[in-house]
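W.,

You were right to be curious about this one. When I first looked at the sequence I had no strong expectations either way, so I just let the prediction run and decided to look at it fresh. Below is the sequence, 219 residues in total, followed by the output.
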Amino acid sequence: MSGRVRIAAAVVGALACAAVALALWLSAGDESAPDTGPDAGEAPSAAPASATSSPQPPTPTDGPDDRCRAIGPFPPERIVVPGVLEAEVVPVPRDDRGVTGVLPLSDKERFAWDMPPSVQPGERRGNVLLNTHTWADGSAAGNRLLDGLDVGDRIILTGSGQRQCYDVDQRMEVEASAKLPAYYEDDGPHRVAIIVCSGERTGPGEWSHRTIWFARAVA
């Protein structure tokens, strides 16, 4: 992928961390991983698709990975990590500067999806980009991923009557200032990439690391 990513971070108070805010600048080959995330105040109380001989579109059929392969791109509505979490996925547009949005800081359960023209589940190439909040009190979706999502685990995205499964093949933690071009890949193998704040909270809006999961689409 060509492109230059510049990160925008917000500081809003004391406890929660929003995973990512990204500004994309088209240029030659330099991309930055998210550097800081905002804090909030005190936490509020399938088998392969088959086609008949008719000209109708193919539909999923039963098999070893029943309904795990989408028949085409779709907007994700829910994410399931078996044994870890199930949550709503919300499309978030970029602002006029190209900065990727995040959900309200009080929204510790849902995931933000970098909506089109970014990659959708079921496409043939590129990363579906998701982020969610991590809270310092350990109660947010990001915390559950940090505790329970590892290499070999499955991620399932559903929406519009479709379903695409992904198997985690890489989990990595990088310093907040690290560059990570692979996260923003839009022309490599189809994957989902999830990023959350991690490490130590060193001050309001300041976390030492980012954890990123890459999961390859079940083909």
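Here's what jumped out at me. The two ends are 22 Å apart (CA to CA). And, maybe more interesting for your project: The chain has a mean pLDDT of 77.

Coffee later to discuss?

I.
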